[in-house]
Design a protein that fits this description.
The protein is mainly alpha-helical. It contains three helices and two strands, in the order αααββ. The chain has a domain of about 35 residues. A two-stranded antiparallel ribbon has the order 1-2. It is rod-shaped, with a radius of gyration of 30 Å.
Length: about 90
């Protein structure tokens, strides 16, 4: 029984199984790297949103006490999500 595994058709079957495992490993790695790229892109988008939020907060803190609400009311655009400079 064991001798038949290492001769003729047994070697071909073991070779086919080995190739199958290699192909599955490559497919798995490709999928994993794609997920990693998506994760990095999502983190980059979040970082950019946080940077924008901090910039807005810094601009508001620099204003005098009563001017922040007035400036936000006059210059905020919900469509673009940014403060418009005059």
């Amino acid at each position: 029984m064991v001798a038949s595994l290492f001769s003729g058709i047994g070697l071909k079957i073991m070779g086919g199984v080995a190739v199958l495992f290699v192909v599955l490993g490559v497919v798995f790695k490709i999928r994993q790297s794609g997920r990693m790229v998506e994760r990095v892109e999502a983190q980059t988008r979040v970082l950019r949103q946080v940077e924008i939020r901090h910039e807005i907060d810094r601009n508001i803190r620099r204003l005098a006490a009563g001017n922040a609400a007035e400036r936000l009311r006059n210059e905020w655009s919900r469509d673009r999500g940014v403060l418009h400079d005059e």
